[in-house]
Amino acid sequence: MTPLPPEKPEEDRIRPHVYDGIQEFDKRLPNWWLYTLYLTIVFWVGYWAYFEWFRAGPTSAEEVGAELARIEAARLAVAQVDDPTLWQMSRNPAITAAGRAVYDANCAACHLASLRGKAESPVAIGPDLTDNVWVYGGRPVEVHALITKGVLAKGMPTWGPVLGPRKISEVTAFLLSRHREGDPIVLQPPSTP
Amino acid sequence: MSLTQDPPSPAPGGPGRAVPGRVAPPRPSRDSVTTIRPDGSRPYLHPAATQGRFTVARRVVALTLLVTYLALPWIQINGHPAVFLDVARLRFHLFGLTLAAQDLWLLFFVFTGVGFSLFFVTALFGRIWCGWACPQTVFLEHVYRPIERLIEGDAVARRALDAAPWSWRKFRRRALKQAIYVLLSAVFTHLFLAYFVSLPEVWAMVRHAPSEHWGAFVFMAGYTGLTYFIFSWFREQVCIVLCPYGRMQSVLTDEHTLAVGYDQGRGEPRGHGAGAGDCVDCGRCVQVCPTGIDIRQGLQLECVGCTACIDACDPVMAKLGRPRGLIRYDSLVGFGGGRTRWLRPRTGLYFVLLLAGAAVGTWALSTIRPASFGVTRMTGAPYLVDGGTVRNQFMVRVVNKRNAPARFRIELPGAPAGLRRTGLEEELEVAPLGEVVRPLVLQQERADYGGLFHLRVELRDAAGTFRLRREVEFLGPEVGTRQGEVRDGAR
Lengths: 193, 491
Prior knowledge:
Chain A is mainly α.
């Protein structure tokens, strides 16, 4: 199509720039378009008043901070374990049942479903967890810490990031339910293969 | 609602011909957008109705699409609606296929596929999508505008009603129209929501107080308002100003692309009598245009290819005893008297890209399984030597992507004899959408270990419908360094 000349050239303002021979008229923006701009200005006033002037609500950063603090508090609540608490948990059937499920899923592969490990079968990988002989300490918090950190040299995995503190407390409680508070703890240093 | 205040067109015999008692429609110009006045205000267009073969064909297509849009959430395939993008559970049901959040990378192929299809179709047929299939056009031209026509009358009557002072009669018609618009927008919005939260849930929310689900209520109210605003007032401004696809046209089309256009060579000069072309300048094509342009001024940004002007012009040509098609689908080359070429580097390239994308996308879709499966070595030593055995420890991760519990078996096909395995001996049950991580410990007698070997680990669906395979390496001490006694995997 051959371009037609502007119909009313004297009325049309043309902007000074030229790109690839193309020029553009200087027309008014649609009013509705301008209203969207005015609306953002109105919104800005309310927004500024809410967050900066009256500080009526928490900012996004404060909300994130509060949520992180809540998560950390919840995590610490289960991470801070002591011997009496773990013994008490070991007498709670609901907790030991949950611990049994965690044990079956994760621990039985090496320590066997009976918990007796090498004491039951010579080809089992993990040691017996039902006797009074402990390699790395037999106090509840020591058992808890061992499960969390693992023993890399012996192949005991680091369960902390896999199970999380709650499940580790549960499985510790389950192990303790096979023991009695006050049982002797016989320490036996790690054997060499 | 803006009232028509256009000055009567000075062009005698032009499309805006001033008739006493009639309000003239806005007069199109090539130098400005008809629907934006010089003062920035918006004239409200009242295109006249058309009749003809394209109008009928477009109505059939539109009604089919409307029924499809509205029916999809109701049709059940494999226990889920045909299209159900379950955002709350992150499960996406598409015609019997269920995709999980893990499969979202497939969206890449969906988007590129839609993109290249549009490129290809656009290069061949121009804005055929806009005029025939776009929901904006379908809802505007086949639902909202017919209602307006029914209540307020034809284009002339509607323009007169716009210009008339407020009266009981005007108020009644306007209130009825707007009430129906609001109601329809609410219905459409609820059905649209059913694509994302399922019909029973939408129905449950509708029957309960808004206070029980403020988020959904505010969303629905806002979306209903937006739909109402777009179809009652904003209309063609979407296509002219907002739509990104419309803006891409100029780089997707060329002189061989089909477009709705006016045959200048045949039509000009306009008028009657000897020496005049076929165009009698009756202005019908301008009166019916939903974006307010004059198609005789050439290919224009505003044209959505709706074909209304074709159906407006053809009967005029028939009455004059001239062949139809003064306004028709043709390419710029075709209007210039040349032959439209369909096979061009552009269409070939778009087609090849479309095919490549579709092939890869189809293959990718075929790899989607209702579970995902991973085998990773446990942290710590890569292997352990314990007594007389070499031990490798792995963590197996199984994710059930289905909405139902699933049972799996882990097997080691082709494992060497004597490889002892503990963990995951029994069937593994994974809850709906659940994830399970379990240890898998493999041991081999030190005497049997002959160096690193590869081992296949397979996840088998207990129902036998599919299997997933991973390969791991079984590591151990270097063979031949027996007396050096590599201990505990420390090399």
